[in-house]
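Following up on my earlier thread - several people asked me to post the actual chain instead of describing it. Fair enough. Here it is, all 260 residues.
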Amino acid sequence: MTAGLAGLAGGARRAEHRAQLWLLAEESVDAQAARYAAALLGADERRRLERLRPPDGRRRFLGARLLCRTVLGELLGRPPAALRFVRGGLGRPELDPNPWGVRFSVSHTPGLIGCLVSGEGPCGLDVERAEAAGPAVRYGQRWLAPAERELLAGLDPAPRARAFTDLWVLKEAYTKALGLGFQHRFDGFRLGPDEHGRVVLEDPSVPPEAAARWRFALLSVPGGYRLAVAVRRDDAGGGPWSAPRPRYLDPRTVAAGAGR
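Reply from S.P.:
Thanks for posting it. Predicted structure:
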C-alpha cells in the first residue's frame, strides 16, 4: 500500500497530490479487530466506541477509524496511533496538526466502509447501496432541487431509483466536503451532467469560478454499492483530473499498523 500512496506524500509537491479512495469490507472488521482499538484509537475515539451499543454500529465505527488511521499513517509515514485528530464541522475528524495539507472523508453503509484522501483541497465521500427503495425515492425527492425533481419525474421506476441514488450520493459527498452536511440545503443547489457527461455544480452560494473547481465522480463497486467523490481543486497547476480508483485495504495492514 505504501507505493500506492506515495503520490500523495511530500507536502511541497502539491501538483502530484491525487485523490485516493480506499475501501474496507465490513466483514473484515471482525471481533478480533477490537483488540486494535486500544493500540490505534485516541481516548475520545475509544469513548465514542464504548457508547455505541448496536454491534453493527460499533463495527462500522471501529472499521472507519482503523481504515483512515492506517491509510493516513502509511501516506504520511507516521505510526497510525501517533496521528491526532480534532472534531471539525459537524463533528467530522480532521488531522491536527496537518502541515501536509491533507484532507480526508470517511463514509460507511452496511457492508462497506470507505476513506477518501486528497492533497488537492476539501473532499467528500458518500457510500450507499446502489438502488434506493421506492419509499426512499418518494420521500427523498422533496430534498432535491426543482430541476432534479423534474428529471426524476420523467423516468420509469427502476431508472428513477438509480438516478435518485446517484443524485443523493453526489449531494452527500459535496456537502460533506463543505463540512456542512444537511445544513447546506439539498434543494438549494444542483448537480448534473454537462454536454460532455461530466458532473458540474450549480450552487448560488458559490461564485462560478469557485464552483468550477469542483470535480465529481460516481463509482460502482461489487456488492451493489454506489459511491460519490467530490474534490475541490485548490491547486490550479494540478493538470487533468481523473477519478480515484477504488482499492481495498488488506485487514492485515491494520494489524501491522497496530504494531508500529
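The two ends are 15 Å apart (CA to CA). That should answer part of your original question.
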